[in-house]
């Protein structure tokens, strides 16, 4: 059975025939002779109503397929065309109508990826928050994520829903924070990433970087003032370390903090800072102009001299608003200097937690991709059989599943090492680097399995494929994390080249 047979119209394939623009306009006026629309009860049963002719005129064949399921809900009357050529043709069909054989990710599939039953390794509290986060993400975020990802906009209206996840502040105890175990924090990070990696990055930056820095390095007054609204997501945080000239070698950063009466002046530039275009609270790392050591500051939104500009044209994590920040003599009162940041070493305890969390993002992304593929392969038929019936496809699916089980166990063990106080920087780096590498194989297999739909954000896999790339590179690239572990196991640091030939410098 071919894809068009479901309409019951042998002539339906004629939609592929090119119809000139002027003729289509004329056809659009005839569109009331034939209306094809979605049944609200079933995606798979488009209803047909023919008002006059059983054999529609040739021009109606195109308009018949233009009316239903349009994203803008408009009539098939030529909307979406612009004479200047900026936009040619009609708006896209709704994906459920254009490709009715498989369910898009807006209706998220049930979890099928937890093959070795991770739940058995979790406490009942960890299991229940995992379940709760999964349900909220599937219900509230899955239906809107493709649209916002495409627009590269953050869904601000969804922040109250993200607040109900109850994860902001993660392991922090008191100050209105949930005081979760690191394992609960990690599995919920994966559940968020399973549905949408941008949302997980939003939470990661806000919670595991900005809030954890205040909790670990802030004064008691700062904790009481800033943490409660951040925990409720009524205030949003960001965390600024990376600079245009200092990415992997961030510890060499050159943004300066100069002592002035009553506080500090911050001067310099930051790059890639997630949430920074709208954050209420910016955690900024800068070099003390006197001591040359690293200091930390809480900069408030709207401070004179502060300018954050959105980085455009990203191919991954498109909902996340990453910014370039320029600081021009931004005054920070003394009360907003973090007393606990006096060297780069002081933020390594923050990075220890955030790296564990980032290690769980590729796990979640892989779970979501597997779950979508698992459903898709059973729904989509080719050569008279579901795609799931082909041996090659089963092998790919099983390879993905194997990677996920291994990642879950490594991620879980990393949490246990952290909880027992035994986790080293090398452990955390191996976890983050390795899960992002394994996940690259999962998302690329998933992309293959979905064929053409593997490049459409509507079926999650293409979106996840792109979202994984920045995660592979942030919070220490795969290479830098490998070098951290390499240094630990060999005792030899190889971040800097042994020698550069002078002639080439
Ligand atoms: C989407 C996104 C969100 C981000 N969010 C934040 C944020 O919120 N806050 C923040 O502070 N930063 C953020 N970052 C910055 C991120 O941490 C950096 O991009 C990352 O550290 C890598 O730095 P770089 O991009 O400058 O790459 P580079 O340092 O220029 O590296 C380029 C390549 O060279 C390799 N390389 C570099 N040095 C070595 C070496 N010694 N040995 C071997 N290979 C090496 C790297 O592995 C990489 O492959 C974000 C980045 C992205 C893409």
Automatic annotation (TrEMBL):
Cellular component terms (Gene Ontology): peroxisome
Biased composition (Basic and acidic residues): 63-85
The Acyl-CoA dehydrogenase/oxidase C-terminal domain, residue ranges: 347-487
Domain of life from the UniProt record: Eukaryota
Keywords: FAD, Flavoprotein, Oxidoreductase
Biological process (GO), any one: fatty acid beta-oxidation
Compositional bias (Low complexity): 47-62
Membrane spanning residue stretches: none
Domain Acyl-CoA dehydrogenase/oxidase N-terminal span(s) in chain numbering: 126-232
Chain ranges of the Acyl-CoA oxidase/dehydrogenase middle domain: 238-330
GO molecular function: acyl-CoA dehydrogenase activity; flavin adenine dinucleotide binding
Record protein name field: Acyl-coenzyme A oxidase 4, peroxisomal
Source organism: Leersia perrieri
């Amino acid at each position: 059975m071919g894809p068009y047979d479901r309409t019951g119209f042998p002539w339906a394939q004629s939609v592929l025939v090119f119809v000139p623009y002027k003729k289509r306009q004329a056809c659009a006026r005839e569109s009331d002779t034939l209306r094809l629309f979605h049944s609200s009860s079933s995606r798979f049963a488009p209803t047909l109503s023919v008002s006059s002719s059983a054999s529609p005129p040739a021009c109606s064949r195109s308009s018949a397929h233009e009316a239903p399921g349009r994203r803008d809900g408009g009539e098939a009357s030529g909307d979406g065309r612009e004479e200047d050529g900026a936009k040619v043709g009609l708006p896209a069909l709704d994906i459920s109508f254009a490709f009715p054989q498989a369910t898009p990710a807006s209706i998220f599939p049930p979890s099928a990826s937890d093959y070795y039953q991770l739940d058995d390794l979790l406490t009942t509290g960890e299991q229940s928050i995992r379940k709760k986060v999964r349900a909220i993400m599937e219900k509230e975020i899955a239906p809107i994520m493709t649209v916002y990802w495409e627009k590269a906009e953050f869904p601000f209206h969804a922040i109250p829903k993200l607040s109900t996840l109850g994860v902001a502040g993660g392991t922090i105890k008191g100050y209105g924070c949930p005081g979760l175990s690191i394992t609960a924090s990690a599995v919920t990070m994966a559940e968020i990433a399973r549905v949408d990696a941008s949302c997980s990055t939003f939470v990661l930056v806000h919670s595991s970087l900005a809030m954890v820095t205040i909790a670990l390095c802030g004064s008691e007054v700062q904790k009481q003032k800033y943490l409660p609204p951040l925990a409720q997501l009524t205030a949003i945080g960001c965390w600024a370390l990376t600079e245009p000239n200092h990415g992997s070698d961030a510890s060499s950063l050159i943004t300066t903090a100069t002592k002035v009466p009553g506080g500090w002046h911050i001067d310099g530039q930051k790059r890639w800072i997630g949430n920074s275009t709208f954050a209420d609270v910016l955690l900024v790392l800068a070099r003390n102009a006197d001591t040359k050591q690293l200091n930390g500051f809480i900069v408030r939104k709207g401070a004179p001299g502060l300018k954050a500009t959105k980085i455009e044209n990203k191919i991954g994590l498109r909902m996340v608003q990453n910014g370039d920040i320029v600081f021009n003599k931004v005054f920070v009162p003394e009360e907003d200097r973090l007393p606990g940041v006096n060297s780069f070493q002081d933020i390594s305890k923050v990075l220890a937690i955030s790296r564990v969390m980032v290690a769980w993002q590729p796990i979640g992304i892989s779970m979501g991709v597997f779950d979508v593929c698992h459903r898709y392969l059973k729904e989509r038929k080719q050569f008279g059989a579901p795609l799931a019936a082909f041996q090659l496809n089963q092998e790919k699916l099983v390879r993905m599943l194997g990677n996920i089980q291994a990642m879950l166990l490594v991620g879980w063990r990393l949490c246990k090492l952290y909880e027992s106080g035994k986790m080293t920087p090398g452990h955390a780096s191996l976890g983050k680097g390795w899960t992002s590498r394994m996940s690259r194989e999962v998302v690329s297999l998933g992309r293959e399995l979905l064929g053409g739909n593997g490049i459409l954000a509507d079926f999650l896999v293409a979106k996840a494929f792109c979202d994984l790339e920045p995660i592979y590179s942030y919070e220490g690239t795969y290479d830098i994390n490998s070098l951290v572990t390499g240094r630990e196991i060999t005792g030899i640091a190889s971040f800097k080249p042994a020698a550069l030939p002078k002639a080439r410098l």
